[in-house]
């Protein structure tokens, strides 16, 4: 049988893996004590470097077990992992054992090194007689390599109850080299009457709650497929903890918020392909980081929740809120801001890409002379935006990637939005949600676009954004689905934009 990469990843992985695992694997003293399939949550990879990548899985016999531990026995299991250059594992290049421990919900993080740069690899796991699906991953190109193209998809906001994860499957079918997830990977809310799929468990507050919620999401076959086909870079936004939290300030007064935040961070780490440097310490987690894709792109992954000042003027959309102009207010914190600006100034990459959560460019939501802005976005932290916009102006090509708002947007980033003649310093691409807010509609939002001439595109449908980076240009395709409240919608491209090298301006393709 001639098994192609596409057939393995889009349907044939399990059979191939089981047939091939018997040769070349180290013997494990793991007698079969009656485990049912422990790979119900799939496999994933992430944070690629030029010589390695993180491999992930988490063992769970029953993803919906209410204690969040997947109905796993309370003991440690050895997990065999293998990495090969081919999907049938004829050429295994790395193998080893990691330990899945009950105190980390039987999650496994394998940090690989010593692989070839710019190369495709396949991986799988084994516990007792059970073999996982096969995942595909790749390393980043060599540090000085500018050849070739990068296909990267990015996504945000996937509420399990508000729709089917078909957009993740369509993203997987695009066979990207890299996937960015910009936050709201899961939602904290309990089930609602209008949900089209049953959300398990109460509103998430405890470690067991968050583990259960992540497990339910990870059991979705469309999301599993999106993780299988490419390495991911992930950052959280608010709903991984609770709506609109800001540093140590919850949405509503809550003396237990530090414990809730710590529980959310622990479960997030356990369920994501992150390096050990991201392992939480109580209610703190080091998530901002830089991932280099050869000389083609630097991905500056930001955390705009953990260090921000509380939202100005009581949060929400506010008109003429003077507090948002306070120069002491920050959305990144001092340390992360310095790290980002130093990285932009010192970059030699063709494209410098900010992977972050909330709307960056100015977005006046009020018609007429008065200005109304979302206090949860960078508009509520003008001094922070001005500094980062200036930093983007020092890069050869600056690109801001955004999620959060459940709509597609595209626009130019100005050095100053207070001056009509201000130069462009970057472009911003905003992805809609995977499911959040349901099917959407065809309102053109003409009033808001008229108020903001630097914003060039809007679409209220669910989907994701597919990008292609080369040394000469960046192309962005805004992918949309006609519906998500039922499964199976086809993806189409609503609009495409191109940014030329040193262009700093979006042009519709």
Automatic annotation (TrEMBL):
Descriptive protein name: Alkaline phosphatase D
InterPro entries per record: Metallo-depent_PP-like, PhoD-like_MPP, PhoD-like_sf, PhoD_N, Phospholipid_Metab_Enz, TAT_signal
Limits of the Phospholipase D N-terminal domain: 41-139
CDD domains: MPP_PhoD (cd07389)
Stretches assigned to coiled coil: none
Annotated Pfam families: PhoD (PF09423), PhoD_N (PF16655)
Sequence ranges assigned to domain PhoD-like phosphatase metallophosphatase in this UniProt record: 153-478
């Amino acid at each position: 049988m001639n098994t192609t990469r596409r057939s393995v990843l889009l349907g044939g992985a399990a059979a191939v893996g089981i047939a091939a695992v018997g040769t070349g694997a180290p013997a494990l003293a793991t007698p079969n004590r009656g485990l049912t399939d422990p790979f119900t949550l799939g496999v994933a990879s992430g944070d690629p470097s030029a010589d390695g990548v993180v491999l992930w899985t988490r063992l769970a016999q029953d993803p919906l077990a209410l204690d969040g531990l997947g109905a796993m026995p309370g003991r440690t299991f050895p997990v065999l992992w293998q990495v090969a250059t081919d999907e049938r594992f004829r050429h295994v290049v790395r193998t080893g054992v990691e330990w899945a421990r009950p105190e980390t919900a039987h999650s496994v993080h394998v940090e690989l090194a010593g692989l070839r740069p710019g190369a495709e690899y396949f991986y799988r796991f084994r516990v007792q007689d059970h073999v996982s699906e096969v995942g595909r991953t790749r390393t980043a190109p060599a540090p000085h390599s500018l050849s070739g193209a990068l296909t990267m998809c990015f996504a945000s906001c996937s509420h399990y109850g508000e729709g089917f994860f078909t957009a993740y499957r369509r993203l997987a079918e695009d066979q990207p080299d890299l996937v960015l997830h910009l936050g709201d990977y899961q939602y904290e809310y309990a089930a609602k009457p209008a949900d089209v799929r049953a959300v398990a468990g109460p509103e998430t507050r405890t470690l067991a709650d968050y583990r259960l919620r992540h497990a339910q999401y990870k059991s979705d076959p469309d999301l599993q497929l999106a993780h299988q086909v490419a390495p991911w870079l992930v950052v959280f936004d608010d709903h991984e903890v609770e709506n609109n939290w800001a540093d140590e300030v919850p949405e509503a007064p809550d003396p237990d918020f530090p414990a809730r935040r710590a529980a959310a961070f622990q479960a997030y780490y356990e369920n994501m392909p992150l390096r050990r440097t991201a392992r939480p310490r109580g209610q703190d987690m080091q998530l901002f980081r830089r991932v280099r894709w050869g000389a083609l792109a630097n991905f500056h992954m930001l955390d705009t929740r953990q260090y921000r000042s509380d939202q100005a003027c009581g949060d929400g959309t506010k008109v003429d809120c003077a507090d948002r102009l306070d120069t002491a207010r920050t959305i990144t914190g001092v340390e992360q801001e310095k790290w980002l600006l130093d990285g932009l100034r010192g970059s030699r990459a063709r494209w410098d890409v900010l992977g972050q959560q909330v709307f960056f460019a100015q977005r006046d939501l009020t018609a007429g002379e008065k200005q109304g802005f979302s206090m949860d976005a960078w508009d509520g932290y003008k001094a922070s935006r001005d500094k980062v916009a200036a930093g983007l102006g020092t890069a050869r090509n600056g690109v801001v990637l955004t999620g959060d708002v459940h709509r597609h947007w595209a626009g130019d980033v100005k050095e100053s939005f207070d001056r009509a003649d201000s130069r462009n310093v970057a472009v911003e691409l905003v992805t809609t949600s995977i499911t959040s807010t349901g099917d959407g509609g065809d309102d053109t939002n003409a009033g808001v676009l008229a108020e903001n001439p630097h914003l060039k595109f809007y679409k209220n449908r669910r989907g994701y954004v597919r990008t292609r980076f080369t040394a000469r240009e960046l192309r962005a395709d805004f992918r949309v689905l006609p519906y998500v409240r039922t499964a199976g919608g086809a993806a189409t491209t609503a609009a495409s934009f191109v940014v030329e090298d040193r262009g700093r301006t979006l042009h519709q393709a």
